[in-house]
Amino acid sequence: MVLNSTDIEVTDDSNLDLLCKAWQNNKDEIIAQNALNARPSALLVWVLGLSVVTFITLSAVVGIALMRFVQKSTYSRFITFFVAVGVGSLSGSAVFHLLPQAYGLL
Question: What GO terms fall under cellular component here (predicted)?
């Protein structure tokens, strides 16, 4: 029997347990319905995904184009920074994603 919160009248503590169960049932149904309705369309996912990838790629191209106009000392610092970011991101990926998955910790 599925209880609705509108079917129960709270006059004393004996009906409070039934009201809580009915509220829990309604809450679970609402959450499940919202989860189904919250998914974006496939077209929206593709458009947003391609837009973000295009933006990131164009920012890299602009960065490469601007590197031609900087001094040698500034260029050396930028390259050192980018190598450090690359090493850090690969190390972080290995520690936080690959190793726990390899040892079955997830």
Answer: plasma membrane
Closest CA to 21 of 12, 8, 34: 8
pTM above 0.70, yes or no: no
Residues, the chain, total?
A: 106
Q: What's the domain count of the chain?
A: 3
Compute the distance between CA of residue 26 and CA of residue 20 in angstroms, rounded to an integer: 10
> How far is residue 48's CA from residue 61's CA, in Å, rounded to a whole number?
20
Q: For 104, left (φ over 0), alpha (ψ -120 to 50), or beta?
A: left
Domain extent at residue 87: 71-106
Q: Considering only CA atoms, which of 14, 18, 15 is closest in space to residue 2?
A: 18
What does the alpha-carbon distance between residue 15 and residue 60 come to, in Å, rounded to a whole number?
64
